[in-house]
Amino acid sequence: MRQPGAYSKLLSGGVSGKTGPHSLPLARIKKIMKKSSEDVKMISGEAPIVFSKACELFVEELTKRAWLITLQGKRRTMQKDDVASAVITTDIFDFLVNLVVEDRNNSTAAVAANKLG
Asked: Can you tell me the distance from the alpha carbon of 17 to that of 2, in angstroms, rounded to the nearest whole number?
């Protein structure tokens, strides 16, 4: 008899202790997966579920790190700069650094333009 796979708890909602619908819309995840490459034609039903869980874990980890920066600033409201700082100071988020730095530069330019005009 076949043993349950590594992802069987994900499919039943057992890993996070939740049951029922997933936090992120699976149809949207599937659409993003298909748009990622012209070669992606067929996606199994389990793949978006695994991606959904991975997205949840990613957001959770980034939020925890940004929250620590918020607390260091002696604030109770997380701000965009807290998230940006978490990205910049955490090696595992290096793939986002260009996005965050570019966004900070655009924000600075917009503030400067508003002051001039």
From this structure: 24
CA atoms of 74 and 111, how far apart (whole Å)? 24
Measured CA to CA in angstroms, residue 88 lies from 16, 44, 46, 57, 97 at distances of 28, 35, 33, 19, 6
Determine the Cα–Cα distance for residues 86 and 106; give it in Å rounded to an integer: 19
As a whole-number percent, the residues of the chain with pLDDT over 90 amount to 62
Name the fold adopted by 8-116: Histone, subunit A (1.10.20)
The whole-model pTM stands at: 0.70
Q: Which amino acid type is present at position 2?
A: R
What pLDDT score does 84 carry? Answer: 95
Backbone angles phi, psi at 83, to 5 degrees: -65, -45
The DSSP symbol for 38 reads T
Is the pLDDT at 59 greater than 60, yes or no?
A: yes
